[in-house]
Design brief:
Pfam families: Peptidase_S9, Peptidase_S9_N. This protein has three domains: 312 residues, Alpha/Beta hydrolase fold, catalytic domain (Rossmann fold, 3-Layer(aba) Sandwich); 142 residues, Methylamine Dehydrogenase, Chain H; 157 residues, Prolyl oligopeptidase, N-terminal domain (Methylamine Dehydrogenase, Chain H). The chain is 19% helix and 32% strand. It has twelve helices and 35 strands. Helix 1 packs across helix 12, helix 2 packs across helix 4 and helix 2 crosses helix 12.
């Protein structure tokens, strides 16, 4: 069977035609009206505002002249700088809303130069994350005349990557039509015309992944780290006044090798010979850098999963996960443990979604500054001073849940694998088999689902329900084998893990199918779509958010054709059909209540994916439960969605879920 022979009755909804846009608008209006008429949207909005906390921590970036951070205050997006974090700050640049009732532009990234004299930002005006570089004089706030017309896909590699002399930077930009998702690295020197030709970095043919350029503190070396899920420092360059000649550096297959340039060495986390990661060093001028026999091991593999390293002075701060929770150790250059941080609770330090994104943090800082959260406290920001071994609170968590307990549990999947999950609930609410319960899961792309505060947890727990945070195979919680155990031909393990968690919740008397809800975001949205089509009777309500649903159709999109290789390729049609939610829909099935949430300007999970699945589900529904779709204008994948739009989204889907679960606020 080939992809072209598979029935595709809603292919017309892939087109961005006037007919499709009208259908989409009617669906959104229907969803909004249904939720409004079901009652309590005002009460849910109040709870959302009360429990809302930043999705990403507001961590300041240190330069020689001060600490920079971005914020949105009273409808104004701005970047500020202070001599100390969050103190004595002044505005460098700000963007009020352009028109009455309009949202200000979002800044997917900001990057001050090392000397703190120039601020580079990415400006996005439609929630898509597509942005363009703008440069500002920090002292005057005046925009510099440098004109870089190229569009950046997002801020996943930090926007611009400054050289230590603050006179130039590298950046990763789209080339050709935006929909082609072709990115190249460019070099820009302040005051000069924008480059017309990309850097000549040796990469695999037709490479469409992300590339992060790292520069040594002394400006002598650069590396190009490629790939989101298992990054590898593929190329190196000896920087000089006469030019930049890139050459291959470390080339390893099906493994990760990423870290930082430290002096004349590259200090890397690698899964070569270590499923859960180890830390090694290779000389930047090594004649055989790709040969693991030339690497010097600094930290060997252990039961902990190594997540990343940050250099502070001559010491390494190593972030690890132990049974899903964070641990941070400080190591000397030879790998000896100097101390362990006394973290402010049982939770996780802030990490970006995928390993490559974590490398954006600047190395060689004076202090280790990090965000930290637990299931019951949102992001706080902390600073560790090695000289005094003291942990200072720079910013308290914005939200705390009092009188709440967290239970660490394990379920057993179909093949006998133990799957961890956590149950968050109020201490004063007695357990009962019909307690409203919402499961949140992801399970893909080597993304570790950190055990941290989520706004939806605050809303449902405060209302007397239970919130469940599940760690499924396909994620990065337990190393390479955990990821590989839930991808490609083993992808069904991810969904079996989820069903094991749900069945364990029911068997333990925590809840029942009539009171069990499920939600997930991005790949978690796909997971939710699979779950409702494979096991419809297991759930009372399911809310897939920005999902991919048509794994075969995804190969017609340049971006998605890279993404869905996580699940298989076009030669694996039978396998893809077994896990593709669009193709799993069966006419005449009684499905539970479903609310599909997506963004109209989403370049990662385009809205047609949600449209097709929702339409097919509506046509197939034999039960009485609603199947709703709301695609939001001025919204994308959530990284650059305007604040008011985000609040409206959160209010509507939570109101729908709470109503279906019988929760009254």
């Amino acid at each position: 069977m080939g992809p072209d022979t598979v029935p595709d009755p809603y292919r017309w909804l892939e087109d961005d035609s006037e007919e499709t846009r009208q259908w989409q608008a009617e669906q959104a209006a229907l969803a909004a009206r249904y939720v409004r008429d079901s009652g309590q949207p005002d009460a849910v909005r109040e709870s959302v505002l009360r429990h809302r906390a930043p999705r990403f921590a507001d961590v300041p970036v240190q330069t020689k002249s001060g600490w920079f951070r971005s914020e949105v205050v009273a409808g104004v997006t701005r970047v500020v700088v202070g001599r100390e974090p969050y103190r004595d700050e002044r505005i460098v640049v700000e963007f009020p809303a352009g028109e009455p009732g309009a949202e200000p532009p979002s800044l997917p990234w900001f990057a001050p130069s090392p000397d703190g004299e120039v601020l580079a930002i990415g400006i996005c005006r439609d929630g898509s994350e597509h942005n363009q570089i703008a440069l500002y004089d920090v002292r005057t706030g005046a925009r510099l005349p440098d004109c870089i017309d190229r569009v950046l896909h997002d801020g996943w590699v930090g926007g611009v990557m400054w050289l230590p002399d603050s006179a130039a930077f590298f950046y990763l930009a789209l080339v050709g039509p935006l929909s082609d998702f072709r990115q190249e690295v460019f070099y820009h020197r302040l005051g000069e015309p924008a480059a017309t030709e990309p850097e000549k970095i040796p990469l695999p043919e037709d490479f469409r992944e992300y590339i992060l350029v790292q520069i040594s503190d002394d400006g002598r070396w650069a590396t190009a780290v490629a790939g989101r899920r298992a990054p590898v420092a593929l190329a190196r360059c000896r920087l000089s006044a006469t030019g930049r000649a890139w050459e291959p550096f470390v080339t390893v297959a099906d493994s990760a090798f990423y870290g930082h340039i430290v002096g004349d060495d590259y200090i890397a986390v690698t899964t070569v010979g270590a499923d859960r990661g180890r830390i090694v060093s290779v000389a930047m001028d090594s004649v055989a850098p790709a040969d693991p026999g030339t690497w010097r091991e600094i930290v060997g593999e252990s039961a902990a999963v190594v997540r990343g390293t940050t250099r502070v002075g001559k010491e390494l701060y190593v972030s690890e996960w132990v049974d899903t929770y964070s641990r941070v150790r400080v190591l000397s250059p030879d790998g000896a443990e100097v101390c362990r941080l006394e973290l402010p609770g049982k939770g996780a330090i802030g990490e970006q979604a995928q390993p490559l994104m974590q490398l954006v943090a600047r190395a060689g800082q004076e202090y280790f500054v990090f965000p930290f959260a637990t299931f019951t406290a949102s992001w706080g920001v902390y600073r560790h001073d090695r000289a005094t071994n003291r942990l200072d609170v720079l910013r308290e968590p914005a939200v705390r849940l009092d009188g709440v307990t967290v239970e660490d549990r394990w379920a057993t999947s179909a093949d006998g694998t133990r799957v961890p999950y956590h149950v968050v609930s109020r201490s004063d609410v007695d357990g009962r088999p019909d307690r409203p319960t919402l499961v949140y899961a992801h399970g893909g792309f080597n993304v570790g689902l950190s055990p941290v505060y989520q706004m939806q947890a605050g809303v449902i727990v405060d209302a007397g329900g239970a919130y469940v945070h599940a760690h499924l195979r396909g994620g990065g919680e337990f190393g390479l084998a955990w990821w590989n155990g839930g991808r490609r031909d083993r992808k069904q393990n991810t969904y079996d893990d989820l069903y094991a968690v749900a069945e364990d919740l029911i068997a333990s008397g925590t809840t029942s199918s009539s009171a069990l809800g499920l939600t997930g975001f991005s790949n978690g949205g796909l997971t939710a779509c699979v779950a409702v089509t494979q096991r419809p009777s297991l759930w009372r309500v399911v809310v897939p958010r920005v999902p991919i649903t048509d794994l075969l159709g995804a190969f017609r999109s340049s971006y998605l054709s890279v993404t869905v290789r996580e699940f298989g390729d076009t030669a694996d049609v039978e396998h893809l059909l077994s896990i593709s939610p669009y193709h799993l829909v069966r006419a005449g099935t009684g499905y539970p209540a479903v609310y599909v949430d997506a963004g109209a300007n989403n370049p990662r999970c385009p809205p047609w994916q949600a449209r097709k699945w929702a339409a097919r589900m509506q046509a197939a529904q034999a039960g009485t439960a609603p199947i709703l779709l709301h695609i939001w204008n001025d919204a994308g994948h959530g990284w650059a969605t305007p604040v008011e739009v985000e609040i409206a989204q959160e209010t509507e889907w939570l109101a729908f879920a709470l109503n279906e679960l019988g929760v009254r606020l």
